[in-house]
Structures are given as C-alpha cells and as structure tokens.
Specification:
17 strands, 7 helices, seven-stranded mixed sheet, alpha/beta, six-stranded mixed sheet
C-alpha cells in the first residue's frame, strides 16, 4: 500500500539556450530538494532548453536515447534516492519535436513518459503569438503513473486549462495531478492560481506544478510561482515570484479521501446530452 505521507518539491528554473547550463541547474535543484528532505522532485516544462527559434531548437534537441539531461537526471535520482519528475524535455521525433515528461524512480529507471496533449496555439492581447503545433507533435494518451506513495496524473502547462483531462486522470486513480509549466507572464498573472485551485478542488486531488520564471534568453517572459495545492484548494507552498529556487511541502494523502468524501463530485458526475435550442425569435440573422 502507498505510504500516506511524503515530501514533494518543485524546482523553479529560468532555462535558457544552453542545454548544459540548464542541465546543471536542474541537477543542482534536485540535489538541493533531496538534501532538504524531498522524496519526489519535479522540474518545469522545457527543463533543458527554452528556445522560440525553430532552427536553433532543432539544432539542440536530441532523441530520447541521446538526451544528456534525461541521462543526468536519471543519475541524480539514483544518487539521491528520490523520484524525479522531469516536467518536460524537447525530444526529437522525426521532423517534429515531442514535448515529453518523464517520471524516474529512485533507482534511475524511467517508469512513465507523457507527451503533452494540448498544444498552445494562441494569439494574446499583448501581441504575443504562439503556434506550438508548427513545431511540436501532440500526444494522444493521458498517463497515470505509480510512485511508492501516490498515483501521479501527468500533465504539462496548457493541459491545465482542460478540466476533462484532470477529471479523467482522477477517475483513473490519480491522487496527485501535475502541470509543470512554461506559462507566459500575461496569462499567469490572470489565470495560474485559479486554474490550479480549480483542478485541485473539482477532483479532490493535490496539484503540483514546477514553473519556469523570468525573462529568458529567447525573449519570452514566464510567470514562475511554482505551486503545491491541497485537495481543498489551499496553497501549501508557492515560489514567491519568478526567481529560480526550490519549494517543498508535505503531502498527506489522507486529505484526498477527506476532500472527496466531503464533496463527492467524482462520484456524482453523470453522463448527459446537450440540447441546442434554435435561434431566438425576432433576431435578424
């Protein structure tokens, strides 16, 4: 049976264009978290490389077997005896790139991988324009993976805006949900906290999300504010802003059963159809 308590950590980063420097920062963050008592450590989306320029991106990404950050963090998990959740890496997949998360056990073995389902194709009021589908290939399968303490539902960044995904992960057994991110500053200021609290509350689950933060070498600005939220929507830990660092919180899994008993929304969900009524009378087309 899973243990009822463990210590979770988020490593907040400001990854740039140098994979080696980013790798060193991620390894240092995991080691710091482990030294402070963490059992499970999560890094952000795009841990090893934050790069908007498509040509530069393709020049630096590697296949999964050749990715040096993945190898280094597997070694770090083994050396520290921690479960390491790489929020995501850019992994070469033919003529596209997979935005892929990895869960690594304390022996350094990859126990799960997840490709981001929802690609960020948006035009923001600030003039920022993002077309992830031009470079990345989207996943097709949601993933729930075991750890010694909890079933982890894997998500990445933009996925957090799709409640049906998180409900499905919880219904499949996840008690801890995740959305490691490279959230834009503009959208983060408006939506980051409320989205995480909503996903936690509506599923009665913990939400753990490590984030990128600050101004990156490729010009983008990300929000930071890595979060650990309990099943009642309370923030157990938060990075105070956009600076790199490590946050930790104790995860008491009995809180999941308590929240789901108080508000049994997962049990009460029922199938339904939608009836669309025709155009209102008297309104010109």
């Amino acid at each position: 049976m899973p243990e009822p308590r463990f210590v979770a950590a988020c490593v907040q980063m400001r990854s740039g264009r140098d994979p080696a420097a980013n790798r060193d920062a991620a390894v240092a963050g995991v080691r710091e978290a482990a030294a402070r008592g963490a059992h499970y450590v999560q890094t952000p989306e795009m841990t090893a490389l934050v790069e908007r320029d498509r040509a530069r991106l393709f020049d630096r990404v590697r296949t999964q077997d050749a990715d040096e950050t993945l190898a280094a963090l597997r070694d770090t998990a083994r050396a520290t005896g921690t479960v390491v959740h790489i929020g995501s890496l850019a992994i070469r997949a033919g003529d596209r790139i997979a935005n892929r998360a990895f869960l690594i056990d304390a022996e350094g073995a990859i126990t799960a991988a997840y490709d981001k389902l929802h690609l960020f194709d948006v035009d923001l009021p600030s003039g920022e324009r993002w077309r992830e589908s031009a470079t990345y290939t989207g996943g097709a399968c949601a993933v729930v993976a075991p750890t010694p303490w909890a079933e982890i539902g894997l998500g990445i960044c933009y996925d957090v805006r799709f409640p049906a995904l998180y409900r499905a992960l919880a219904e499949a057994g996840a008690t801890v949900l995740t959305a490691p991110a490279c959230f834009t500053r503009q959208t983060g200021e408006a939506h980051w906290h409320v989205l995480h609290r909503a996903r936690a509350i509506e599923t009665g689950s913990f939400m753990i999300s490590a984030a990128q933060g600050g101004r990156h070498e490729d010009g983008r600005e990300t929000y930071g504010h890595s979060l650990i939220v309990d099943p009642w929507g309370r923030m157990l830990a938060e990075a105070g802003g956009a600076e790199p660092g490590v946050i930790l919180a104790e995860i008491d899994l009995s809180a999941v059963a308590e929240a789901r008993a108080r508000i049994p929304a997962l049990q009460h969900a029922k199938p339904f159809t939608v009836e669309r009524i025709g155009s209102a009378r008297g309104v010109r087309p």
